[in-house]
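User: Sigma-54 dependent transcriptional regulator, Marinobacter qingdaonensis:
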Amino acid sequence: MPDYQSSPRVLLVEDSASNALVYRSYLEADYSVVTAGTGSEALEKLASQRFDLVLTDVRLPDMTGLDILDEIQRTEDPLPVVVMTAHGSVDVVVDSMQRGASDFLSKPFEKARLLVTLENILKKEQLKEIVTEYEKSFQRDAFHEMVGASLPMQNVYRIIESASKSNATVFITGESGTGKELCASALHAESLRRDKPFIALNCAAIPKDLLESEIFGHVKGAFTGATGSREGAAARASGGTLFLDEIGEMPMDLQSKLLRFIQSGTFQPVGANREVKVDVRFICATNRDPLEEVRAGRFREDLYYRLHVIPLEMPPLRQRGNDSLLIGERMLKQCTVEENKRFRGFSEEVKRILLDYSWPGNVRELGNVIRNIVVLNDGELVRPDMLPDSVRSGGRAVAKSSHAYAMERTPSQIDRQPLNGAVAPQPPEANGDIRPLWVEEKEIIERAIDRCGGNVPRAAAFLEISASTIYRKKQQWEAV
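Assistant: Predicted structure for Sigma-54 dependent transcriptional regulator:
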């Protein structure tokens, strides 16, 4: 970045010695001025010295000022150029601006006009440098264990950094496999509680009758099989962070106990007659639409508003641009080392396939595909024939259950061959009265999206389904 605290350096290119003397007198109080009388002399000085701005006449003995402008524009970091001309035709002005000039001055001009022009240009350059440095400082291709350089992920990183220093509850939403637990872990690692425990509990992976004990613990004899006291996740997370993944799977009766725990900071272990007080920061996540769950009566509204303080949505991989390739390359490198293989990258065709595929299973699916490739193959480059059929064919070769397959075929496609000697039932005549369910559903959803101006989440809200359901069904229709 130029040092604007000292006097900016200006290269003045003017073949008239008298004009050069006048312009130099205008500038020397605020700028460090170097003069050149020809175009070649100006280019030599540009090659050997540092300048912040160039002020050049159009007409020079050996070339034009526009030729100098062209040479400057070919450099990696072009300097701002102000063109001076006594021949201020519209064509000259337009030509200079199209070639990249920052501004122009028609001779003769006053000192004030010159100073204002240069001052505005240098302020603009300084602001541009500041913005560029700011963007560079935030443009990351990884953040803790999360990998991604796309704009949606940059937004996730910034929310994490902003929310991490607070004790406010963070509610993470996103499709399965988008990295919600990695996001929760990053929130903890960035927080002031980073040196305290991070306890993660998957509410969908624990039997409902044991979930209360897993969260709050139990005392000896509290239920059959409780041969000793056990500390729950809430107590183990004291001073740190408690992450409740797939919180939408929590039974309603346990939701009320969790609400009281969040409000008071106290809980009662199963079978205990005393309360325990802890200091816990809550993070929760779900792959469902929480408002839809509230409307359906499966999730308490008061608990939703208690938890939904800082919402954070993890974007699906299909909305993350080139991140699938970036993540895939890192996973390939890691798996190659673990499996002692020779892979060093993807072929260009494989890169295109990975970028085009919609990844319904998100990052988790991508990880499984990379592991599959490395375990079953070897070589220096991953070739298209090494990819699973489902990825290579863009998802159209995904195996379907017999029920799903039957639902997705038209009556004319249904197998009519006799089964065990019996006559297969014939479908109704194609009179348009009865159509497959998926066709009717497709038309309803597409009509809703069209009426919502292409806004899928808004259409999903009106249809009282989740947006992820619509995306999944659209993938299924495209695969038919």
